[in-house]
């Protein structure tokens, strides 16, 4: 398997970034309809969040922070609740993260690359997660599954990148 | 206030009158459904997406392939259902339709779809079996392909009552051979060695016909036989670990030191992450429990049981089957194999060394094989051995030129390989290509009208919702995740008496 060093991947993602696009979204209206995930993003503002399902609204003063770096380099920063997983947060904010197995650590579709600065603050992945990471496209040294990362104070401010490579990495990808 | 309600009315009538481009997806398994899901989620052009399914019920291999003790893998069906539920209604720019019980090529021709639709995506998977091509494979009793076996225990309506399986004498099955080294081979092994453990299998949606047959089998040993060596095993670490962890029920794994010993695999010299983890896993689990060095291999102490009670599974390597030997009733009693070896220039060759295994059941797990539709020949569509000839999912004709409006996703595009996650990504890639092509087409086909289903018996998405509810309710009554209908007649009878 061709392994990309995650620092390379992360810096690469950052190089593509536009100026920081801060979205707080705390005051957005809760959406109770399932249409949220299916409307073309062009027609909805990015401050719509669906607080149904597994995403929780953080209490004022207790907000934690997470930044997602999308495949095109855009950065999205959110105020989030302790205990929510990165998968729930990403999906609640309509980001392009699939969770084919519903967040039960049985696939690799929520694969994220964690900023090396925050990686060690995370508890180590267990065998089940590592078994799934075996199958992830573009695996790096700081890859994790989004469904297994729960927000805690220890990782407040964490930055993760959605993998730019969405198929098996080939040697000519680096040309 | 007035302006707001006016614009609401305007939007609704726009979505009623919008001219939707028509896309047909053939097959409702993960590749078909993920293709439809991606189209409906991302397309800015309004679409009418129809999924055609040969069976009365959707979901393909998710329902009939995934192992019953892996229910979380089937969670993709939640994504599919939400998508179908959302777009089956009439208040959206897209429209979704499910048509079950219709086989493209039979009640409706592919050529008709190509004439009426703006795009047709072949996602019908692989319906055949790769064969060994040895004596006795097709004729001996007690020899089955993995596809037949998996369909049987997953309650596929064409296989659930297959007499070759249901009337087989399971009470004599002690030694089992499985040819193949993919995850399906391990799924089969897990079921064969652990089916008597109620806590694992009772809550699942496994066909009770199959479960009861298997529970009457006094299985002692399952050999998983590979043509090549340990380095080339195709199954994934997750499934292998699951097998090792059955040791807590007295089910033991074995690998002959000829094929695996720790000194052969010095982990400090291994760069490949997956292989390194596999070597460590096997090295640890092959040690006696109290000699293991890492705590993740010491989770459950194996029970102290009598050796006669132990059930073994074994990874056997460098063997090729030659011949199935049968008794006077035509039932398998043993298998002849030859040993293989790797030459100095890394070629795999058969040797003259042969071995015979006593065997009461043989399952060939070599992969499913794709089949062409009958119309391909007349239409000049190219089929490449066991999958569609295609470039990036655009199907090619026999001259290698792109066949207009025709695409392929999933196993019928690439061959029978990959897990649901890779199928999903492939489906998204093909859906992107379809959207690209549709957006470049400035005019739709001349006859873009609905396919006339008035004379054709079929099930709808709303029918599936009723069937699904009924299966889940039966599951609740029997403390299972679901109890599947095992034949079409039962389903049709249920629908007829639940017409409202």
Automatic annotation (TrEMBL), chain A:
<comment type="similarity">
    <text>Belongs to the adrenodoxin/putidaredoxin family.</text>
</comment>
<keyword id="KW-0001">2Fe-2S</keyword>
<dbReference type="GO" id="GO:0005739">
    <property type="term" value="C:mitochondrion"/>
</dbReference>
<dbReference type="InterPro" id="IPR001041">
    <property type="entry name" value="2Fe-2S_ferredoxin-type"/>
</dbReference>
<dbReference type="GO" id="GO:0046872">
    <property type="term" value="F:metal ion binding"/>
</dbReference>
<dbReference type="InterPro" id="IPR018298">
    <property type="entry name" value="Adrenodoxin_Fe-S_BS"/>
</dbReference>
<keyword id="KW-0408">Iron</keyword>
<keyword id="KW-0496">Mitochondrion</keyword>
<protein>
    <recommendedName>
        <fullName>2Fe-2S ferredoxin-type domain-containing protein</fullName>
    </recommendedName>
</protein>
<keyword id="KW-0813">Transport</keyword>
<keyword id="KW-0479">Metal-binding</keyword>
<dbReference type="GO" id="GO:0009055">
    <property type="term" value="F:electron transfer activity"/>
</dbReference>
<dbReference type="GO" id="GO:0051537">
    <property type="term" value="F:2 iron, 2 sulfur cluster binding"/>
</dbReference>
<keyword id="KW-0249">Electron transport</keyword>
<dbReference type="InterPro" id="IPR012675">
    <property type="entry name" value="Beta-grasp_dom_sf"/>
</dbReference>
<dbReference type="InterPro" id="IPR001055">
    <property type="entry name" value="Adrenodoxin-like"/>
</dbReference>
<dbReference type="InterPro" id="IPR036010">
    <property type="entry name" value="2Fe-2S_ferredoxin-like_sf"/>
</dbReference>
<keyword id="KW-0411">Iron-sulfur</keyword>
<dbReference type="Pfam" id="PF00111">
    <property type="entry name" value="Fer2"/>
</dbReference>
<dbReference type="GO" id="GO:0140647">
    <property type="term" value="P:P450-containing electron transport chain"/>
</dbReference>
<feature type="domain" description="2Fe-2S ferredoxin-type">
    <location>
        <begin position="64"/>
        <end position="166"/>
    </location>
</feature>
Automatic annotation (TrEMBL), chain B:
<feature type="binding site">
    <location>
        <begin position="418"/>
        <end position="420"/>
    </location>
    <ligand>
        <name>FAD</name>
    </ligand>
</feature>
<protein>
    <recommendedName>
        <fullName>NADPH:adrenodoxin oxidoreductase, mitochondrial</fullName>
        <ecNumber>1.18.1.6</ecNumber>
    </recommendedName>
</protein>
<dbReference type="Pfam" id="PF13450">
    <property type="entry name" value="NAD_binding_8"/>
</dbReference>
<keyword id="KW-0496">Mitochondrion</keyword>
<comment type="similarity">
    <text>Belongs to the glutamate synthase family.</text>
</comment>
<keyword id="KW-0521">NADP</keyword>
<dbReference type="InterPro" id="IPR036188">
    <property type="entry name" value="FAD/NAD-bd_sf"/>
</dbReference>
<feature type="binding site">
    <location>
        <position position="61"/>
    </location>
    <ligand>
        <name>FAD</name>
    </ligand>
</feature>
<keyword id="KW-0408">Iron</keyword>
<keyword id="KW-0314">Glutamate biosynthesis</keyword>
<dbReference type="GO" id="GO:0016491">
    <property type="term" value="F:oxidoreductase activity"/>
</dbReference>
<comment type="pathway">
    <text>Amino-acid biosynthesis.</text>
</comment>
<dbReference type="InterPro" id="IPR021163">
    <property type="entry name" value="Ferredox_Rdtase_adrenod"/>
</dbReference>
<keyword id="KW-0560">Oxidoreductase</keyword>
<keyword id="KW-0288">FMN</keyword>
<feature type="binding site">
    <location>
        <position position="239"/>
    </location>
    <ligand>
        <name>NADP(+)</name>
    </ligand>
</feature>
<feature type="binding site">
    <location>
        <begin position="181"/>
        <end position="184"/>
    </location>
    <ligand>
        <name>NADP(+)</name>
    </ligand>
</feature>
<keyword id="KW-0285">Flavoprotein</keyword>
<dbReference type="GO" id="GO:0006537">
    <property type="term" value="P:glutamate biosynthetic process"/>
</dbReference>
<dbReference type="GO" id="GO:0005739">
    <property type="term" value="C:mitochondrion"/>
</dbReference>
<keyword id="KW-0315">Glutamine amidotransferase</keyword>
<comment type="similarity">
    <text>Belongs to the ferredoxin--NADP reductase type 1 family.</text>
</comment>
